[in-house]
Amino acid sequence: MENFYLFVLMCIFLIILPGPDTAITTKNTVTVGKIGGLKTALGTCCALLIHTSAAVLGLSAIIVKSALLFSVFKYVGAVYLIYLGVKTLWSLKKKEEAASVKVMTKSQFVNTSCFKQGFLTNILNPKVAVFFLTFLPQFVDSGINTFLPFLIMGITYTVLTAVWFLLYVYLINQISAFMKKPKTQNIIEGITGTILIGFGIKLALEKTHN
Question: For labelling, which of 14, 58, 67, 154 has a CA lying 20 to 30 Å from the CA of 190?
């Protein structure tokens, strides 16, 4: 493996760039609480471990090279992101109708779905598979078996992602007094819903990689 420290530095820059995972984590931390944000981050990291395994076993290469499989993952992922975005925006219109008991029940349900949202948002994004297959080989010596280097780098990327989201959720939770004001929540959910729909449309228009 070459330039491992450079790999770590590049990972940090890539991880902190806002994306669908960050949008979902922000929304769930604000609306559900710290536990919701952590469960979302855990779902994301579990999906990254699966992407790592796929890259190590060569499955990601098959998905990326197959126009059909890439398109299937792309459109399913796009539809899911758009669904989450529309659901988030729609919830803004329904808030005033919820009674206090209903809100508690809804919070418990949302809390259990946070992991699923984080997991599906990441696992259904074929761009993550493309990232692993185009980014990781740049730090591997040519002509050697890629199994162990890919495994180490994939786990490293997942651990760095987990650390970042732990810090991010903690930060959001620390300013929760401001973040959880009804007006602030409405703004955040509105922005998040719009961003998710935008990411979904962008993913749907992504060209197939051959």
Answer: 14
